[in-house]
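Provenance

Sequences were taken from public entries as deposited. Structures were produced by running a predictor on each sequence independently, with no templates supplied. The record for Canalicular multispecific organic anion transporter 1-like from Tropilaelaps mercedesae is shown for reference.
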Amino acid sequence: MSRGISLVSDTGRSVSLAGSLVGDVQENPERYQLVAKETVEEGSIKLQIYVNYFKHIGCLLTFSTLLFYISFRTLDITNGIWLSSWSQDNDTSPANRDFLLGVYAGIGLSQGLCNFFGVAFLTKATITASTNLHRLMLHSIMRAPLSFFDTTPMGRLLNRFGKDLDQLDVQLPMMANFTLEMFFQIIGMVVLISMKFPVFLLFAIPVLTLFVILRQIFVKTLRQVKRLESVTRSPIYSHFSETINGLTSVRGFGVEDVFRKKNDEKVDISQNCSFHVTVCNYWMSLRLELLGNIMIFVMVVLVVTNRQIIDAGTAGLLISYSLGAVVAFNFFVFFSTEVESTIIAAERLDEYTNVEPEALWSSNNRPSDDWPGRGEIEFRTYSTRYRNGLNLILHNINLTVQPLQKIGVVGRTGAGKSTLILTIFRILEGVEGKIFIDGVDIGKIGLHELRSRLTIIPQESVLFCSSLRFNLDPNDEYTDAQLWTALERAHLKQYFEGQNGLETEISEGGGNLSVGQRQLVCLARAVLRKTRILVLDEATAAVDLETDTLIQDTIRKVFRDSTILTIAHRVNTILDSDLVVVMAAGQIIETGQPQVLLQNPQSEFFSMAREAGLALTSAVSIAEKPIDWKTDSTASTSTSDNQKSSQI
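Predicted structure for Canalicular multispecific organic anion transporter 1-like:
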């Protein structure tokens, strides 16, 4: 009767909690968004973005680049003036000819060198800035907390590291080169013509002002369209990546056309933005051509009306520079706009260089080298949430794990079992309360000091595309003998001896190994490290019963002197634990020895065991059967175990 009353009470609380949660979601939908909305800046690019970009380049490279471009354009104008002067020189003596030719050649050679070094320094400058931005962004992303990856799709990251970096690496150097050349060519043209016709300034100033106004209108529109174009690429990458990862399910359910249609829709949206970029360019091109032709007309009128005071060579030089200036104006507007549009990539990269990081990787408050020596874990009124603004996912956890205890943590889906493990590794930071390991507050030490002293075997094995040796010992800390011993204890020695030994190539994600073998490789890693605390996060949930038995047997033998926390998927795997912790809705609702809980029909653990189909009498007998954790029979692993491994 009391059991029924308790269930009714729990149901009432659950309904009340669900009702309040639904109301909160309706009032504050942004708090519960699974994917954060991608930021789209508006207006002109902030001055700080340019300042940061030039900081990544450095003052020396910036100054050297500008110096060579100014020198190149100065020599180009000097070359034209010298050639014009030479054409009017009536002295045809060999000495004078050789002198004029030598000076002309020297100016041309110097001009070529300045052009070469200007482009070289510009390329070096942009690559340096791009490299520094990539390094900072990579460091920022690698140090980002779990909440960042929960709300940021993979396609968005690929867009930043792919297309945005490509624009800074490839497009920006080319556009910046043309922009600088055209800018100094325009300045040179205005100075040269004004020296001959000062009245030209009266016309040049309003025309240049009109150029600037048109450019501002053009840039304002194009900049925002470019931003939209950048943002609309991310969904394409995300959708493609998700489709590839779930390709088996897509084909299995026969929904290829649905996913193809979604992909087409996302591509169409992106191409719509690209089309408007082209429209903006044509709009500006028409107006620039009109202004340019007006400038040429005015220049020709000035030359013709002043033909008595200027010679033919000078007239040709001025008209030639005017024609070149029109092209320069057009190119300058387009290329400078492209530079500003490309800097949007730096703006987007800069956003990801300032991601709020995890706690300090290493701190001055370092624990002793032999910490943790006992393996005691204590939760004191500990609460946490997945990210700011969300509800608590763990509530007032109070739990003490004694040294060398074997703890089984069970609960239904969403109970908070895996979250409890995340808090031990500080992947999730606490909101209230503290966690102590051997009396040390883990919140006050560096993440490296903490995580390097703990070992976890996850539910999904993580293997890298490299050799078996690298997957077991990436930092080259162990001898070959130790690696083979670990493989032997993980029941993999015979299998890899039949391959290429420690140099056996592992494909990406361990694709050339079975699920069971991948999990046994993770077990071998744990055997190598053999820390005082071992965490099993449903490590055998995805493997067959035979591999499950091998893993459990190795853990009992190798980690008999370690504290073990097991997140259980199968109730029978924790029946031999010293203590069972039952969780529900982020709280510990029950603790006790498994044999005691199984004898109490009102316990939650009893209910879970019954639902799992365990014969309660046999379950109790297993729970009461003493496990000899002190016996280590792994010194000589039987051949039959290796044969079992080779069949997994």
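DSSP finds 21 helices and twelve strands in the chain.
Residues 42-353 form a domain with the ABC transporter transmembrane region fold fold (CATH 1.20.1560.10).
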